[in-house]
Amino acid sequence: MDEIEIPSLDATRFDSILETDQAEEFATRLRAASSQLDGHTYWHINSTAAGGGVAEMLQSVLSYLRGGGINARWAVIEGDEEFFVVTKRIHNFLHGSKGDGGSLGEAERAAYELALGHQFKDLEALVQPGDVVVLHDPQTLGMAPHLRELGASVIWSCHVGTDEPNEFAHSAWEFLAPYARLAQRVVFSRRSYAWDLLDPTLVEVIAPCIDAFSPKNQRLTADVVAAVLDQSGVVPSGSSGPASFHRQNGDEAVVKARAVMLEEEPVPAGAKLVTQISRWDPLKDHLGVMVGFCEYVPESIDAHVVLVGPSPESVTDDPEGGDTLDELRKAWSQLPDASRERVHIACLPMDDLAENAAIVNALQRRSDVIIQKSLAEGFGLTVAEAMWKETPTVASAVGGIQEQIEDGVNGLLVDPHDLEQFGRAVSGLLEDPDRARELGRRAHISVRDHYLAPHYLARFLELAMSVS
Ligand code: UDP
Q: Is the CB–ligand 1 distance for residue 95 below 6 Å?
């Protein structure tokens, strides 16, 4: 178990971008929660400090709770390979996917409970009766019985699900239900993800959020964008500007890290850019992006696609990452020459998460289109991130992406299995910058109204108060 340090940030910085009533509502909720939780800790526990949407959110949003006087703390569990094979299987099953083809039986339950029992030993010394603990995702849920016994209040937040539960989803639900029933509230990121095995009065729906001021989303000028992408080696341009950004605590920093690129030649500085940013997970369908782009985005458009993900060894809770990247590299090497020249694979360094975030930020701003062609998606923070930056999106009509994108209004939705439709949607936006700009403008407004940190935190504070 690792504890991650959380800086303290003043949430009034959101006053400049929220509507007045939105800002006031959040300030009131923060004050009330701070007074009610006085003397207690508001824990958030997940399974990785880096990589993936949950880590991304916790890194930034918990700071605003501390800034508001709440003793928020973040702990990350550890586990052995066997544990993460089981939890990745649960994750895939919850998405309705068969994953590695294994099952969830007594042996898997024993491995799951054993690993979480060890993790709880570390936590036991830290959590006090009366504390409120939010357990994120299936990886941590098995600690609910121990925490309840200790006298803590428990909320389980499940960020994954499927709109059409199949036998795999049901099998994961059966596996998890004994623990989930011990939580006082279960939060799903989308209404249709709620299981019918659970008491509906305990179920809440809260969409994830982004932090407009984090290194991932803060404003960057065009010069800085060019400099960050040049310095990181993703889009060399010979830029001489400063590759500077602000860390979460406000300190100025400079991107020094370099990405590992797989490419024939670097992306030409002036080329149109289409980008997908994801963990190396088969459900993100990198292969589909590559093939759809090569076959259906004509060479005459002069566009390049960059598939971006973390350096694979850095994401500790995802055992499939390395294999998925290897397969992609192999498929890339077998592309016809003319196609291969237009496809770039970027592994971003994760040693300094803020630098990694600044590179992602610059890519999302530099790109003409951001893609999220997932086969399944809990929410898809990458979509909200691009939308906030007014970059037009083409994304699959799956899971939480459908909450965010209204097709043809603030982005484009495509059938994840129709590569031609996908390619045409991307080409259409590249060839019609006015339409692309209008979609981006509307996208920004919808993120401001629904998916910024204060919206998310206000709901979670309300829950913490209701169970404490
Ligand atoms: N991400 C990142 N660096 C990478 C790849 C992904 O910072 O190299 C971030 C991405 O910007 C987003 C998160 O990881 O904030 C992915 O969240 P999402 O909800 O899109 O997918 P998940 O990984 O949770 O399935």
A: no
Q: Which of 46, 47, 56, 87 to mutate to test the pocket of ligand 1 (most atoms within 8 A of CB)?
A: 56
Domain assignment present for residue 107? The answer is yes
Q: Centre a 10 Å sphere on the Cβ of residue 357 and count the other Cβ atoms it contains.
A: 24
pLDDT greater than 90 at residue 314: no
Measured CA distances, 386 to 119, 124, 218 (Å): 36, 40, 12
Whether the CB of 379 sits within 6 Å of ligand 1: yes
How does DSSP classify residue 299?
G
CATH of the domain at 78: 3.40.50.2000
- Ligand 1 contacts CB of residue 96 (under 6 A): no
With a 6 Å cutoff on the Cβ, whether 52 touches ligand 1 is: yes
pLDDT bracket for residue 312 (50, 70, 90): confident
> How many angstroms separate the alpha carbon of residue 55 from the centre of ligand 1?
9
Same-domain status, 139 and 258: no
88 and 117 together in one domain: yes
DSSP states of 102-156: ---SHHHHHHHHHHHHHHHHHHHTT--TT-EEEEEHHHHHTTHHHHHHHT-EEEE
Ligand 1 touching residue 86 (CB < 6 A): no
For residue 180, what are the domain limits? 2-209+452-467
| H or E, element range at 25 | helix 20-36
Closest atom of ligand 1 to CA, residue 383: 20
Q: Are residues 340 and 253 in the same domain?
A: yes
Burial profile 394-433: b = 16 or more Cβ within 10 angstroms, e = fewer: bbbebbbbbbbbeeeebbbbbebeebebbbbbbbebbeee
Domain count, the chain: 2
Q: How confident is the model at residue 317 (pLDDT cuts 50, 70, 90)?
A: low
Ligand 1 near 312 CB (within 6 A):
no
410 in contact with ligand 1, CB cutoff 6 A? no
Are 177 and 268 in the same domain?
no
* Nearest CA residue ID for atom 7, ligand 1: 357
The closest residue, in CA terms, to atom 24 on ligand 1 is 53
For 377, residues 6+ apart whose C-beta sits below 8 A from its C-beta are 283, 396, 398, 399, 400, 401
Give CA–CA dist 468/403, Å, rounded. Answer: 30
Mean pLDDT value across residues 48-58: 88
In short, whether 309's Cβ falls inside 6 Å of ligand 1 is yes
Query: Counting beta carbons within 10 angstroms of the beta carbon of residue 333, is it exposed (0 to 12), middle (13 to 18) or buried (19 or more)?
Result: exposed
pTM as predicted: 0.92
